[in-house]
């Protein structure tokens, strides 16, 4: 591997890509679905097969945001932590691999429950007139803690956090 010095433009692109990826977590955790939608191209290839078992498939970003919002806003709180960004730039395209931990909290009376997953996202991005946008998002789950049934209990309870409330 040959060392290649980054240019000032490369550093700006990397900072903008990290900001885009961080808006993924912030949008979810704040239930700010406008922010969350802002990071995606209009159509995105989503591969969450390591979580759901469903094959990768292209989806309209609006439909994806509605699905995620409809699921994760049912929890009392979530916290998505992202770190260790590894970015590869290729002109107006990029790849960003990011470690992740996602915590999902549900409170029922005196019972506090949490489900956690860890792993990494591999995002492919394109530079558009509006900035960097995710065109493909793959979640690779490497560990899980807690009861996955917490998602169903949240859905059964049907509580929704208002937009902007964590």
From TrEMBL:
InterPro entries given in the database record: NTF2-like_dom_sf, SnoaL-like
CDD domains noted in UniProt: NTF2_like
Highest rank taxon of the organism: Bacteria
SnoaL-like domain: residues covered: 10-137
Protein name in the entry: Nuclear transport factor 2 family protein
Source taxonomy: Bacteria, Pseudomonadati, Pseudomonadota, Alphaproteobacteria, Sphingomonadales
